[in-house]
Amino acid sequence: MFGILSVGGTILYMFNMPHRDVQGETAKYTIEANKFVNEFMDNSEASNAKYLDNVVVVSGTVAEISEDQLKQKVILLKTDKAGVNCTFTAETNVNANKLSAGDKVKIKGIVRMGASYDEDLEEAEFAILEKCNIIK
Amino acid sequence: MKKLTLLLIVLFPTLFFAQTKYITRAGHANLFSTTIAEDITADNYKVTSTINAETGAMVFVIPVQSFEFKKSLMQKHFNQENFMNSKAFPKIKFKGEIKNLSTVKWDKDGKYPVTVQGDLTIRDVTKALSAEGTISIEKGIVTASSVFMVKQISDYHVGKPTRKSKRDNVAENIKITYKGIYKVK
To answer: How does strand A29-32 pair with strand A55-67?
Structure first.
């Protein structure tokens, strides 16, 4: 009986497993935006293995503030070769709203994609951070 | 006067030639899989895409890990090695061209139906893909949208759940809905 209950409980937990609490996690790496982008540009394979799906804090200068189709704020940290696009959430948008271009900022988020140059786009792909918030 | 015109063209080419390239870094793609067992849907708001109005070239780069599922367990399964293996293959790419480019009047407001043909690459496997879509121009803002099917996902080595009872929960053909709002590059 207990066995059935615990298996059932585990299945129920797995099924309703909460999403990752990115802001609640300790950042695995803290890095400056330029260095972050350059690491990907120099060795995408190693950087993908190192950074993808991990929580990081990236520091840099705000170049542009925009909004996506979900009304989430997107802060672009400009770098020499590409950029770091940091998407905030409904809960953290309010903090992104306080920023203006030129501000120095530290942003914590989860890495979804690295930066690279794409010959088909004829553009740099920016590194992508999501579930972002500003770190004091 | 001729010399002056020439000088102006050299100095300010954008005054004389229409800007021809559009870009978005925040396109929205939704995927939808339906079987008797369940419906699965996920959203991605981080599609990078360019349109070249002169050549008709359209390129899309979709970060696999940016697909958000309602259930986190599903998101985990989607990214894991035997399915999308997103750590090894972090991007989906489509490279194609607008076949009926001459029907799109880029400088005139309107909705223009387009056929886009090209190559879709998932997990390093490239297959031909054709999609019907719409280019909308409104006050200079270019919006591209489309609903299309990616057929036979197992051909892209996208694995199915290994447990027999779950195997048929993922459809073979996945419906994609896309909308991107572009700005002049």
So the answer is: parallel
Tell whether A10 is covered by a domain. Answer: no
Mean pLDDT of A78-96: 97
Q: pTM, whole model, 2 decimals?
A: 0.88
B72·A14 Cβ contact <8 A: no
Q: Would B11 be classed as within a structural domain? A: no
Whether residue B183 lies within 8 A of chain A, CB to CB, comes out as no
Substitution target from A65, A123, A129 for chain B, most B beta carbons within 10 A: A123
Output the pLDDT for position A7. 72
pLDDT score of A28 more than 60: yes
The residue count of chain B comes to 185
Counting Cα atoms < 13 Å in the Cβ hemisphere of A98 gives 8
Q: Give domain status of residue B13, yes or no.
A: no
CA B30/CA B175 separation, integer angstroms: 8
Instruction: Specify if B14 maps to a domain.
Output: no
Contact pairs from chain A to chain B, CB under 8 Å? 79
Work out how many domains chain A is built from and give that number.
1
Would you say residue B140 has pLDDT above 90? Answer: no
In which domain, by residue range, is B179 found?
20-184
pLDDT interval class at B16 (50, 70, 90): low
- ipTM (interface predicted TM): 0.89
- Secondary-structure percent of chain A, ordered helix, strand, coil, rounded to 5: 30, 40, 35
Does B75 sit within 8 Å of A69, measured CB to CB? Answer: no
Chain B's closest residue to A128, CA to CA, is B46
Full domain range(s) for residue A30: 21-134
Find chain B residues with C-beta within 8 A of A128's C-beta: 46, 63, 66
B10 domain-assigned: no
